[in-house]
Every structure is written in C-alpha cells, then in structure tokens.
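Protocol step 4 of 6: structure prediction from sequence.
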Amino acid sequence: SPRGTPCDGRLGTFGMLAMRTSQRTSRRFVLVDIENLVGPSHRSPVAVKSVFDRLHDHLGDTSHDTVVTATGRKLLTEATGAFPSRVVIGHGIDGADLRLFEEMTPHRVAGRYASVVLASGDGAAFAPAVAGLNSVGVPTDVVLGAGRAGYALRRLARSVTSLDSFRGTPLAAA
C-alpha cells in the first residue's frame, strides 16, 4: 500500500504512531526551581552557573527531555543563559513555584513523559502536584540544591538526591 503497513518495513501511520509513543514515553520532564536550588544567600551569577553545571552532571543527557526553569526577575539573566531550557518567570514570593506547579498538572504530563525530575525541595508547594502525578503513573525524582526536602515531598517522590552529594550515575527516565 502507498502509506505503508506495520509489516511492510515502511513507516506508515501505525509505525509513526508507535515511534512517537516510544519517543514520548522515554522522555523526562525536568522542572527547575533555580531560586530554591541556589538558596537565598547565594544568588549570584557564579552560584547559578555552579548549580546548573552540577544539575547537568546529575541529569546526564537532556537532549530528548523537556526542561523548564522557573525564576523571579532577580535571576532571570543567569537562568536564561546558564542552562538550555524554557524559562518561565514568576512574580512575588512564591511566583516561581506557582509557575512550575502549573506545568506539573497530570493532564499535561501523563502520556507525554516517562518521569518528572523536580529540581526543588519545596515540599509545601510541590507535594500535591507529585501526588497527582503518582495517581496517573508518572514517577517524580527530586533533586535538591540548598536545603532539604519536606517530609511529604520526600515520601511521595520515587527518589530524592542532593546535588551536593551526587557522585554517581545520571538519572534515567524510567
């Protein structure tokens, strides 16, 4: 047939659908709360670059992943230039958290990504979103920078690691 079939060696409709599904489910959705990772007392361009470098080492290859970094206006320049990602800007005290929370809704993530990597320890902001992702079968790995993860977030996450103590194999999608 001109469009191909699943059995004739050409990528027809069925083959393309299978390929897209395979690509979609092997990807990670990486969400970075740069202000939380850096910490309140170390918000400088050097500190942001250092955190992004360590995060890149921890994540390994992100070329097939979707990466979103949330920041306030104070770290916008550093967040934009230091790590290849889509940057969302939050306003106010919890603005960056709210922007990432919007990104983490189960209907946006389920079926598109194999897992979520949340680079933040802000349990109060993200525990409900991680619980929602768990309910649709999408596990979340938490990566900490400055500080610790809240109890609820630690309990709900598939894994919790710190950039400061990371010395191992980069996180895998599945």
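Step 5 (inspection) to follow. The first strand starts at residue 28 and ends at 33.
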